[in-house]
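Anyone opening a protein record will find just a pair of labelled lines. With that in mind, the following record should read easily:
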Amino acid sequence: MILASKIPIGLLMPKLTNAMELSAYLWMLEFSYRIWMSWFGHYWRFGKKVWHTTMPRSHND
């Protein structure tokens, strides 16, 4: 995540005038990353639960 975040930060650096905007950008990046990971985690667990209940034989063979 850190390596991938260096590219947009480098592109937006001329537009950032002070540390407040930079911290706000980093906070939004972190916030969106946490939201995405939590949503993906819930979706993954829900999908596995549905998969195990609808097709139990494929895993018990």
The longest helix spans residues 19-54.
